Structure prediction request, 155 residues.
Amino acid sequence: MAIETFERLLGEHPFFKDLEASHLATIVGCASNVKFEAGEFIFRERQPAERFYVIRHGQVAVETFLPGRGAITIETMRDGEVLGWSWLFAPFKWHFDARAVTLVRALALDGTCLRGKCEKDAAFGYEIMKRFAEVAIRRMEATQLQLLDLYGNQP
Prediction:
């Protein structure tokens, strides 16, 4: 049986593909294991964004609240996906809610730790910024599609 190390888990993840070994080692130093039960909120809109997550197992609903409609699922995240980008951009507050739909096991990466390391190493910071810009763009596109579904058929 192979030993599950943060280095191996993150090194095999598509989000971290082709990341320099020294940069991967930097990220590993900010990682921890977390678990969320079905129905538990992982983070809430407008609360401090202090980490991001690499989902190893389970499903997470990324939601927003619409008056008169309640919670709307913008996107459902699954095994192997990266959850959260608000930790990287001031004012470091979540823009959505994230709720575990099933039992979720993930790696949590400390955003404060990583922001400090990005500040000290410009090449590392640029690489992280490029990767998370893609995450943010995908989330905005998913939100746009959801809004079109909600409001596209109204007069």
